[in-house]
From TrEMBL:
Protein name in the entry: L-lactate dehydrogenase
Residue ranges of domain Lactate/malate dehydrogenase N-terminal in the record: 10-147
EC annotation from Swiss-Prot or TrEMBL: 1.1.1.27
Described purpose of this protein according to its UniProt entry: Catalyzes the conversion of lactate to pyruvate.
Species the sequence originates in: Alkalidesulfovibrio alkalitolerans DSM 16529
Length: 317
């Protein structure tokens, strides 16, 4: 979508829980859209959220926020699926499979009834498996179904590295790939700071990464567990991660983001959704950037795919 078509930008959020509303709130502040639609199983909840967001109007760029049923999805460029059972303390994301897969199977046909060609952005957990289910249920081209994937994990990785080396996180480049979950893979072999490979940067500044690797990996993988333990849910950071994906689509930025997508031969993988660096533009996921990782990283990616395949098998895929 071109910038001049901003007046026609519309996003619908299905599921007005903490994640869905953190996203809607951040999206309104960002000024990327002119209309936000809210759909929720309990209409009063969606209507209340719409009223609250509309009261923000004097402080932000003009955006109309409306609540209703699935008819809200008509003419939306992006429909975000944030409906589902939340991860609780002691649970992994994979523990949520059966209930949330059933919600996807119910929700996606209702969306397509009013909008046959949306871009679906799936954020409900376990996001990789639910992205796979959404692709199969919708029949849409795989590139038009985007999982929020490891975009947030990647940003956590970069943020921690920026703290170690005292540089702006926007100048730190590195990726987390695979499952958005316990088997995710931090791709150390690709990390660079301002274009300088990490090991060269370490040598130049006198700060070795070797002693810090384990703690950084633990912090990235366990970040959600720590937040859930202290405040029951994560929502602000994932809301902003979703806005970043939305921006890539609506502004046709061709952004490289580690979103979840269906594997079609990359690293010998197929028929499973996981995250890799992907080019994201107005048509959704335009291409996957699959080039060699270090051997141990590729092995870990294959192991991550196996974990996800087990999850898919448990619900008949």
């Amino acid at each position: 979508m071109n910038r001049e078509n901003a007046s026609h930008r519309k996003v619908v959020v299905v599921g007005t829980g903490l994640v869905g509303m953190s996203y809607a709130y951040a999206l309104g502040i960002k000024g990327l859209v002119r209309e936000i639609g809210l759909v929720n199983r309990t209409l009063d909840k969606a209507q209340g959220e719409a009223l609250d967001l509309n009261h923000c109007q004097p402080f932000v760029n003009p955006v109309s926020v409306n609540a209703g049923g699935f008819e809200m999805c008509r003419d939306a460029q992006i429909v975000v699926i944030a409906a589902g059972v939340n991860q609780e303390q002691g649970q992994t994301r994979l523990d949520l499979i059966e209930k949330n897969a059933a919600i996807i199977k119910e929700t996606v046909p209702r969306i397509l009834e009013y909008n046959p060609e949306p871009i679906l952005l799936v954020v409900s957990n376990p996001v990789d498996i639910l992205t796979h289910v959404a692709i199969k249920v919708s029949g849409l081209p795989p590139g038009r179904v985007i999982g929020s994937g490891t975009v947030l994990d990647t940003m956590r990785f970069r943020s921690l590295l920026s703290e170690v080396y005292e540089v702006d996180a926007r100048n730190v480049h590195g990726y987390v790939v695979g499952e958005h979950g316990d088997s995710e893979v931090l791709v150390w072999s690709r990390v660079n700071i301002a274009g300088i490979p990490l090991l060269e940067y370490c040598a130049a500044c006198g700060k070795s990464i070797a002693a810090r690797k384990k703690s950084i990996e633990d912090d990235v993988r366990n970040a959600a567990y720590h937040v859930i333990q202290k405040k029951q849910a994560t929502y602000y950071a994932i809301g902003l991660a979703m806005v970043r994906i939305t921006e890539g689509v609506l502004m046709n930025q061709h952004s490289v983001l580690t979103v979840g997508t269906l594997m079609r031969g990359e690293y010998g993988l197929s028929n499973v959704c996981l995250s890799l660096p992907c080019v994201v533009g107005s048509n959704g996921i335009e291409r996957v950037l699959a080039s060699p990782f270090a051997d141990d990283e590729e092995h870990a990616l294959l192991d991550s795919a196996s974990v996800l395949r087990e999850g898919l098998s448990s619900i008949g895929y």
